[in-house]
Amino acid sequence: MYREQGLEREQMRDEESIVNEILERLPKPLQGKIYNDSALYLQMPDGTSHAFHFEVKAQPRKEWLMYWKSDFIKKDKNGYPLLLCHYLSPALQRYCMENKVNFIDSAGNMFILTPNYYLNVTGNKNESVVKNTNGMSIGIMKLLFVMLADEQIINYTYREIAEQAGISLGMVKKGFDYLENNKLYREGNNVRRFTDIPELYRSWIQSYDSVLRPKIVKMRLSGNILWKDIKLLPGEYWAGEVAAYELSKGYLQPEMIKIFTPLSFHERRKDLGLRPDPNGDVEFMETFWGASFQMSHAGYALLTIAELVASQDERNIEMAKIINENTLHINTSII
Questions:
Q1: CA angle at residue 42 from 130 to 115, to 5 degrees?
Q2: Is residue 132 part of a domain?
Q3: What is the model's pLDDT at position 73?
Q4: Is residue 160 classed as helix, strand or coil in its secondary structure?
């Protein structure tokens, strides 16, 4: 009996992990929310929400898929069934599309067909998260950023940390597992602390360009405006060269204007009189942290150094080294 209970708890944890990973990787416009542990509400392209009655199956087989949809519809003729699962092979993805089986897998592949909507995303590889040689994922990088920016956050509750980082509770657990497995934090007397902050800084900066930066939503623009004439709104921060100008007290003259913003790109560009331009010298970048997070000097320096290094511009890289010497004091190479 106890073994059966243990297996049941393990299965529940696995299903919760699948759901958390899928919610973490959903394209932002969909904004999925779970209600009553059985309905997933997705925001459709026109802004309306649509409810799907979902079932979680870690590794569905073709034989199971053949009967699942019909059985589900028999139970609820008015609902739209949706399968949530680990990575589906390309063959099973094709089977689902050919047989109109709605699914979302943990790699971000999806097929959703209703009378009014058609969503299809394929080609994502068999990885629950994008990884680099250090084993960091997008969610872990978001977690580490807020905790490195404010060392008090590491001792917040998991729910508070999730809100600060803008990630799921499941991802917070994965992040601490990553830190524990790499002996990068310890816990004692109900207090958590990092064991090697310089190493975490270095790993985060090196991983930023390949793991997190490609997933940040961006928009290039152009217009007749100087960066000094732009007034940042609440929640916005300079990035790259303008941030380096601030941190170096004017040492680096900006050529490219970058702004991290939580606001609508469309509304913001209209306010500033900018127009979309793939070769423009202005770039909006969507903030990747939670709405409750307050940027610190250390966080600003960490993000700025990472952006400068990612630019692969020799002038910017030299500036990154100078900012590091004045702020983070990483002894090892950050390049």
A1: 120
A2: no
A3: 66
A4: helix
**Could you please report the per-residue DSSP string of 294-325?**
---HHHHHHHHHHHHHHTT-HHHHHHHHHHHH
User: Rounded CA gap, 123 and 17, in Å?
Assistant: 22
Domain limit, last residue, from 92, 121, 150? 121
Q: Are residues 20 and 58 in the same domain?
A: yes
Q: Quick one: pLDDT at residue 176? A: 93
Token code pair at residue 210: 């390949």
Tokens of 94: 């094709």
Contacts of 232 (CB under 8 A, 6+ apart): 238, 259
Long-range Cβ contact pairs of 275-281 (< 8 A, separation 24 or more): 275/221, 275/222, 275/223, 276/219, 276/220, 276/221, 277/220, 277/221, 277/222, 278/220, 279/220, 279/222, 280/220, 280/221, 280/222, 280/223, 281/222, 281/255, 281/256, 281/257
Q: How confident is the model at residue 130 (pLDDT cuts 50, 70, 90)?
A: very low
Number of domains the chain is built from: 3
The model's pLDDT over 150-176, given as tens digits with 9 standing for 90+, comes to: 999 999 999 999 999 999 988 999 999
Do 226 and 160 fall into the same domain? no
Mean of the per-residue pLDDT values of the chain:
85
Whether residue 254 lies inside any domain: the answer is yes
Q: What is the mean pLDDT of residues 181-205?
A: 91
Q: Which residues of 126-141 are buried (b: 16+ CB within 10 A; e: fewer)?
A: eebbbebebebbbbbb
Instruction: Compute the distance between CA of residue 45 and CA of residue 51 in angstroms, rounded to an integer.
Output: 14
